[in-house]
Specification:
9 helices; alpha+beta; 18% strand; Beta-Lactamase
């Protein structure tokens, strides 16, 4: 019994305790972001709320949310967090899908990490970021049902500010807001290159998205002949 008692009294290593505490903080942060996604009604409120929670776990200087704009075949900035005074990046700014770092992340559905922007930048948008005083960058795709809908990017003023582990954290946080964004943005998550609504996709979206909420859009969808079809004129 004495040996068992001594075993029970052995302190848990401090390193392990710190690791458990980080896991608990991460789990609580994900729950909080999920609550924000379910309760807020605008894209900006959802993104700002996520950024505030993320900043408690990850040091970064500013962040941006871009969503795909099929009319311009570009990623359009929908929300910004942090200081953007005198920045070229503004809400509504377009980043071409085929010639921007956001576009590359969107197209390849994989994270992008720049640990040293002066040496690693590839696109004009990254050069703008560098010229505004930032040395590190991390972007992750927003994906719904295997389709990209946008990109979340965080940047920092220090070299080597973001690692793969940090990118995974940003991805986890961003995953929590994807469906909320889809429920707000007037587009079909399964068919992002059109602004028509697909009834089956709306019905399957769950959460705040309901068929009654989109009744008018469904009517428009029907008048246009459904997804990908034109109404036939028999006159």
């Amino acid at each position: 019994m004495d040996s068992v008692g001594n075993l029970l009294r052995v302190p848990v290593p401090k390193l392990r305790m710190n690791r458990l505490a980080r896991i608990a903080d991460r789990y609580q942060a994900l729950l909080r972001v999920n609550e924000i996604a379910l309760s807020e009604s605008t894209i900006d409120e959802v993104f700002q709320g996520m950024c505030i929670v993320l900043r408690k776990l990850l040091a970064y200087d500013r962040a941006g949310l871009t969503l795909y704009d099929p009319d311009h075949d570009s990623l359009k900035i929908e929300s910004l967090y942090g200081s953007y005074e005198n920045s070229v990046f503004r809400v509504g700014y377009l980043l071409p899908r085929k010639s921007s770092q956001n576009g590359w992340t969107f197209e390849h559905q994989t994270m992008t990490i720049r640990r040293d922007l002066p040496k690693e930048f590839r696109f004009p948008s990254e050069k703008h970021t560098l010229e505004e005083g930032y040395r590190s960058l991390c972007s992750v795709p927003l994906i719904v049902r295997r389709n990209s809908i946008g990109v979340v990017t965080v940047v920092g003023t220090r070299k080597d500010q973001f690692s793969v582990e940090h990118a995974l954290l940003v991805q986890e946080m961003s995953n929590q807001i994807s469906m909320a964004i889809i429920s707000i943005v007037p587009s079909c998550p399964a068919h992002p290159h059109t602004k028509l609504f697909c009834p089956r996709c709306i019905g399957a979206a769950g959460g705040k998205t309901t068929v009654s909420k989109h009744r008018e859009d469904l009517s428009n969808w029907g008048r246009k002949g459904g997804r990908g079809h034109k109404k036939l004129d028999f006159s």
